[in-house]
Amino acid sequence: MLPSIPGYSGVTSFPQVTSGKLLLNNFYLCCTNSFKSFPFHIGGAGLTLFVVLRKNSIMSLKEALHWRSATKSFNGEKIEQEKLDQILEAIRLAPSSSGLQPYKVFVINSRAIREKLTPIAWGQPQILQASHILVFAAWDELSAERVDGFFTYSNQVRNLPQTTTDDYRLNLLSLLDKKSKEEQFIDASRQSYIALGFGLLAAAELKVDATPMEGFDNAALDELLDLKSHGLRSTVMMALGYRDHENDWWSKLDRVRWPHDELFIEL
Ligand SMILES: Cc1cc2nc3c(=O)[nH]c(=O)nc-3n(C[C@H](O)[C@H](O)[C@H](O)COP(=O)(O)O)c2cc1C
Question: In a mutational test of the pocket of ligand 1, which residue from 214, 257, 258 has the highest number of ligand atoms less than 8 Å from its CB?
Fold first, then answer.
């Protein structure tokens, strides 16, 4: 019988695996000299049948929450484009105050940029080891032009007259007008952290490792990416990739969280 292989599925009953096994990216390839019925197969020659077990790459939310950790050492492997796209889509779908999504996310693959980013992030090794670095950058102010731009777009998407949102929009603009430019940036930056959280969770569900990273020199990063010219300021980063099981000492430590009764105050 095929031994159970943690993290892989596809075959319930499998006689006599006799030779060969090959661990591919998401698949476990093995062969047998006798077969009955297999849900997955890619071909047979004589009595030898090759089967492919698909890696369980989607976890339940509960499993994902326990599995994830802020990876300190990545193995340099690139994440699949499909998974990256799913993580980015989760970030895109994150909620934000008034729906403004007052931020942009830079998806950095370029090694040259990551080399420049490493000293800015205090030499943290994840920057070069990771597959991709996401830089979250919030609007440097919630200007009327930007707010109006969002509501114009929103009404277009929903096929509604532009006047539909006038009351809400004008009320929001009068509230924002009372805030300094710095306070407006702080508001925007908070929203970017919600998007970060959505990205972290999406990555965990896909069994992609991710590190939220605030340990960097914001001004230097803003300069590197020329964020000022885009009206943006960096807030937080996320390194994405696969953990280096041997060297990722952090994932071997117990998770430390306040106990339930310490954290939650029931009224
Ligand atoms: C906003 C934020 C900034 C962080 N910055 C860094 C960082 O710069 N480098 C790093 O290795 N970990 C960073 N972390 C990871 C935390 O240290 C980690 O999430 C925390 O200790 C709990 O560990 P866990 O996420 O593995 O459960 C950051 C986490 C958050 C939420």
Answer: 214
CA distance 184 to 172: 12
> What's the whole-number mean pLDDT along residues 221-245?
98
Residue-wise pLDDT for 21-57, tens only, equals 444 444 445 444 444 334 444 444 444 444 455 555 5
Say yes or no: CB of residue 211 within 6 Å of ligand 1: yes
**8 Å CB contact between 140 and 231:** yes
- Judge whether 94 and 197 are in contact, CB under 8 Å: yes
Domains observed in the chain: 8-55 (no CATH), 61-142+179-251 (3.40.109.10)
pTM: 0.81
Give ∠ CA 155-158-160 in degrees, rounded to 5. 55
- CA angle centred on 90, ends 173 and 198, rounded to 5°: 75
Share the mean pLDDT of the chain. 86
Crossing angle, helix 144-157 and helix 166-177, to 10 degrees?
160
- Residue with the smallest CA separation from ligand 1 atom 17 is 70
Residue whose structure tokens are 């040259």:
112
Q: Where are the alpha helices (DSSP H) in 97-180?
A: 111-120, 126-129, 144-157, 166-177
